[in-house]
Amino acid sequence: MIRKISSVENTRVRHFRQLYRKKFRDREGLYVIEGANLLKEALSFGAALGDVFLTDSFRGQEPELTAELEASGAEMYVLPEGLFSQITDTETPQGVAAVVEKPLRSAEEVMKNCRSLVVLDRLQDPGNLGTIVRTADAAGFDGIIAMKGTADIFAPKTVRAAAGAIYRVEIAYMDEPDEAAVALREHGITTVCTSPYAEKVYYDVDLSGKTALIIGNEANGACDEFMKGADINVTIPMSGATESLNAGIAAAVIMFESLRQKNIKG
Hints:
The protein is α/β, with parallel strands linked by helices. It has helices at residues 11-18, 22-28, 36-45, 56-61, 63-71, 81-87, 107-113, 126-138, 156-162, 177-186, 224-229, 247-265, and strands at 2-4, 30-34, 49-54, 75-78, 96-101, 117-121, 143-147, 170-174, 190-194, 200-201, 211-216, 232-235. It has 12 helices and 12 strands. It starts with a strand and ends with a helix.
């Protein structure tokens, strides 16, 4: 059954709007997705959907997706176009948005289940985070561990930048770098940390095994605990006057080198 909502003061609408704030996402274990493509990805993954908000025009344009959403058992609400635009975050809303349960794992599960991981050490830019999650999926890195101080992976901008990869990569959080380094080693995972001061170049080291790539904060790099505790520190050689790469690009360069090496070894 699809119900109608016409007021911004509606309880369901107010709850939806609260989830654009990190403290509410953390408290409730929920986040927001917008747009048909992300809804399709969520349904394909079997994500636990909460409230779904849509417009009449979206129902007319996407009858099959609307029917699939109804069949999922989600609570569905039709909003006027103006109200929908008012409560969503994108500049050009697509007419559908939903509340979704966070697909979180424990760090133990991620280290045990995943072939290769990315460890995010206090990254702050949502675009970088989304790019890294999306690239990890493309390059065969199927786990993400976000350290304390990293921006929220489930923020709307990050979720959009990840473009559905958030459902195909296992995600966990950890607090202490020392504990993370020890746990990774106990699981037989080689830790590789990026550093502009490293002597080894990323393509000269073996990245074909079970690897955890540590990507540090955009301004300050990885913390000392990771730099000193990593099995290998690597750098990306550059020509020209540029001193450093965007964190998302640096991560992509090394992840795809890892994929290349794995493909060669079969």
